[in-house]
Amino acid sequence: MAVTVTDCDKMIAASKKAGKMLSIGYRLHFDPYNLEMVRLGKEKVYGEIKKMTAAFSFVAQKGIWRLDKKMAGGGPLMDLGVYCMQGMMYTTGMEPVAITAQSPPVTDTEKFIGVEETLSFQMEMPNGLIAECRTSYSENANFLRAEAERGFFELQPAYNYSGLRGKTTDGIIEYPRLSQQAKQMDGFALSIKNNQPSIVPGEMGRRDVKIIEAIYEAMRTGKRVGIK
Questions:
Q1: pLDDT value, residue 170
Q2: How far apart, in whole angstroms, are the C-alpha atoms of residue 2 and residue 100?
Q3: How far apart are CA 65 and CA 79, in angstroms?
Q4: Beta strands 130-136; 171-173: pairing state
Q5: Calpha distance 115→117 (Å, rounded)
Q6: pTM
Q7: Which long-range contacts (CB under 8 A, 24 or more apart) does 173-178 make?
Q8: Whose CB has fewer CB within 10 Å in the chain, the N or C terminal residue?
């Protein structure tokens, strides 16, 4: 949504002052594959989730805008890690109470100036579950996986605009192809038409930027960072 929580607050305040709705571009909240992960987690189809892992990474080319902190706001966490972070929350139905994070030394100091190359972070959920995430500009990964008491469910790839694939202990998750962006725009149009809040409001975006700030703090300090 923004680079800082302060900027998020300004955006939310501006939308309210103007009497307009604000919706964040979280297209996966309208994607059937990711919605199935939500259902499987919410309904506890395979029991309580005992382990969650996610990763989203690609190999970034030197010189692209994503490696410029002034333009991107950060490294792969801001660009890709937010998908993992969101996946953990909408699959479990919980928000983290604390964060730990680790970032190894960069392998190319000329390519990665001011932004992290790779970042692993752990989201401590209220029930004690530790959701493990990894994001990088030097690796290739794209998955969201939950392991529960009586089975597993996962998407791989999980975050693309199309071509998603899923499976569970009982078989394949499969849906017809569609435009996630079209579904997202339809959802926002219906929110306006029916005068109902967006399912991905500014407050959700603010929450996520707050968590991102906590992850970066944990990365810098090496300490567990609580989230109020």
A1: 98
A2: 22
A3: 11
A4: unpaired
A5: 7
A6: 0.96
A7: 173/33, 173/36, 175/32, 175/33, 175/36, 178/32
A8: C
